């Protein structure tokens, strides 16, 4: 009788040992899988899912971005006291952006300012919004001021354009239009619609 009880006890103990051993092996495998997963690099898509699509990857303070022409000369400079950077599409949203565009031959400056901006670094394209101002001065024509609420500056193509209302003021005239396209190096403006001009007598 005692022999049967001892044999049953040993058999039960072996079953429990096998069960505990199996549980330990499964736990170890789970830990290894977790460690391997944690060592995998976080992709930009994973980062976006973690932070949300509208949250930046980082903040930039007093940032300046420069572009150069084929001869190595400065062609554009964009700066902002504060911006938010999004790595996925190489984009920076800017507060109070300021810009400088230089004509290729004459090196005459175009000064840009707005309340907000969005700059795509790889495309060298800047969108300015709210209280946009462009000042341009040449020896022949003097100073001109362009005002609008939205303007796209494409430094790769060397053009500026908008479909918003525009006011252009210089020493002898005031012009209003809706929609405009300008070629920076050629100093050519194309006014698209509802053009209304006033000329001052000297």
UniProtKB/TrEMBL annotation:
GO MF: glycolipid transfer activity; lipopolysaccharide transmembrane transporter activity
InterPro entries in alphabetical order: LipoPS_assembly_LptC-rel (IPR010664), LPS_export_LptC (IPR052363), LptC (IPR026265)
GO cellular component, one term: outer membrane-bounded periplasmic space
Locations listed in the record: Cell inner membrane
Parts of the chain that traverse the membrane: 18-36
GO BP field: Gram-negative-bacterium-type cell outer membrane assembly
Keyword Coiled coil: no
Membrane topology: Single-pass membrane protein
Highest taxon above the source species: Bacteria
Keyword terms of this UniProt record: Cell inner membrane, Cell membrane, Membrane, Transmembrane, Transmembrane helix
Function: Involved in the assembly of lipopolysaccharide (LPS). Required for the translocation of LPS from the inner membrane to the outer membrane. Facilitates the transfer of LPS from the inner membrane to the periplasmic protein LptA. Could be a docking site for LptA.
Family, similarity comment: Belongs to the LptC family.
HAMAP family according to UniProt: LPS_assembly_LptC
Oligomeric form and interacting partners: Component of the lipopolysaccharide transport and assembly complex. Interacts with LptA and the LptBFG transporter complex.
Protein name: Lipopolysaccharide export system protein LptC
């Amino acid at each position: 009788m005692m022999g049967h009880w001892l044999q049953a006890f040993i058999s039960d103990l072996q079953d429990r040992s096998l069960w505990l051993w199996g549980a330990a092996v499964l736990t170890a495998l789970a830990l290894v899988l977790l460690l391997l997963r944690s060592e995998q690099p976080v992709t930009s898509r994973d980062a976006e899912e973690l932070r949300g699509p509208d949250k930046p990857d980082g903040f930039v303070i007093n940032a300046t971005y420069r572009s150069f022409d084929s001869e190595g000369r400065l062609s554009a400079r964009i700066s902002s006291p504060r911006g938010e950077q999004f790595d996925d599409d190489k984009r920076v949203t800017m507060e109070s952006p300021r810009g400088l565009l230089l004509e290729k031959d004459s090196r005459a400056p175009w000064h840009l300012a707005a309340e907000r901006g969005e700059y795509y670094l790889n495309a060298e394209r800047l969108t300015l919004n709210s209280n946009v101002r462009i000042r341009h001065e040449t020896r022949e024509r003097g100073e001109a001021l362009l005002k609008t609420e939205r303007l796209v500056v494409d430094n790769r193509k060397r053009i500026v354009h908008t479909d918003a209302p525009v006011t252009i003021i210089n020493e002898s005239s005031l012009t209003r239009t809706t929609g405009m396209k300008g070629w920076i190096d050629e100093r050519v403006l194309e006014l698209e619609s509802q053009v209304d001009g006033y000329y001052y007598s000297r």
